Amino acid sequence: MSCPPYPPGRIAEVFKAFLLLGLSAFGGPIAHLGYFRSEFVERRRWLSEEAYADLVALCQFLPGPASSQVGFALGLMRAGPWGAAAAWTAFTFGHHHGALWAGGHAA
């Protein structure tokens, strides 16, 4: 089975969107799901409200943090396997470095 072709710009688009969210989104997995909904359903219209609700329900059923799984799935849906990797990497990197920056400047 071959992967469907994805426009090359989509991987960069996914990476940028998730990096910006990672740098600015605070809170736990439930808060992240709200940020994802606002960004990808309302603002960017990557998927419908119903499709997002179904995706969240599926990811909450699976073991592990639902927000990581939803982010990975959104990247996969938008730009294939590399988009999934880009979403996970960018959000994790951005969130980690945003927290380090905030912690370093709090003192």
Automatic annotation (TrEMBL):
TM regions (residue ranges): 14-36
Coarse class of the protein's main subcellular location: membrane
Topological type in the membrane: Multi-pass membrane protein
Classification via InterPro entries: Chromate_transpt
Cellular compartment(s): Cell membrane
Keywords recorded for this protein, A-Z: Cell membrane, Membrane, Transmembrane, Transmembrane helix
Domain of life: Bacteria
Family: Belongs to the chromate ion transporter (CHR) (TC 2.A.51) family.
Identification of the protein by name: Chromate transporter
Organism of this sequence: Allohahella marinimesophila
Lineage of origin: Bacteria, Pseudomonadati, Pseudomonadota, Gammaproteobacteria, Oceanospirillales
